[in-house]
Amino acid sequence: xxxxxxxxxxxxxxxxxxxxxxxxxxxxxxxxxxxxxxxxxxxxxxxxxxxxxxxxxxxxxxxxxxxxxxxxxxxxxxxxxxxxxxxxxxxxxxxxxxxxxxxxxxxxxxxxxxxxxxxxxxxxxxxxxxxxxxxxxxxxxxxxxxxxxxxxxxxxxxxxxxxxxxxxxxxxxxxxxxxxxxxxxxxxxxxxxxxxxxxxxxxxxxxxxxxxxxxxxxxxxxxxxxxxxxxxxxxxxxxxxxxxxxxxxxxxxxxxxxxxxxxxxxxxxxxxxxxxxxxxxxxxxxxxxxxxxxxxxxxxxxxx
Amino acid sequence: xxxxxxxxxxxxxxxxxxxxxxxxxxxxxxxxxxxxxxxxxxxxxxxxxxxxxxxxxxxxxxxxxxxxxxxxxxxxx
Lengths: 304, 77
Fold this sequence. Notes:
The complex is a heterodimer. By secondary structure, chain A is α+β, with helices and mostly antiparallel strands.
């Protein structure tokens, strides 16, 4: 018998479900604790977070926590593996695009976009991480945003920690990034959709992670038109391509989110990219038409 | 792009990358995984397992089960 806890944090829904109901409280606290830790390390909206202090101290090495170096390592690894498509140094570009506050506030405003000239070109290779002295630095003109990796990393890490230490099958969902770990006799059932409340499509999840990236949720209005939070590091602006939503399965939620984000940025190349990587994926174009890639379950396949 | 694909594929074929103070956890996880490898009949669902309903070897997605409510949602947030 599974048991679930849900709550809201980081402006999104968080859920932990365990197969051993007796472990629910401990699992929930573990997720809450790590989310608090990650927020103190990486939140752009918390002035005292390590990432905010690194960004404010651009041009020099700033002392941070070990957690922050781990999170930045994951982000730089994602950048390396996508050849810079998922780049953590787009922080200033996101701000220039108008995403300067919690999304619940930004959505309701006509946002003034930056008038201080274009920021420096994003370049993850410029980030300096000193593991011995536990310091991180970014060049002046750039700033960090770990949004593409910190959330799925938290889902992965809590799921695997709960499974390993509490001995229960577990699903952790943080704002649409899902990680599962441990034992369960039947697949977890996941409703994949563009927005909460949309009809969507249900799939079974047996291992790894599932992530959805979309231009349709974290978006806002500026004087020059709509903008969203998925920045193309090659242009420094919100990505423009044929896909508004990408859902990808991979061996971890970090990898799934990395691939779904890269798919939105890659645009017309996304299907070939995902197919080559053999990652089952579901892409939605701007007309709402669904395209599936690889081993994504066909609609008519329903297990009895 | 070809290099990015190679990088990604290499990691996608591996396992979760964990760094920092999680080394102890990683070691525990590895030990746990080694002792919980499924037998063909126990129905355990792990990567690489052979479970009815799986649509592709190695993939963690299956077709949905009939008349089963979702456990979770993956959508834009």
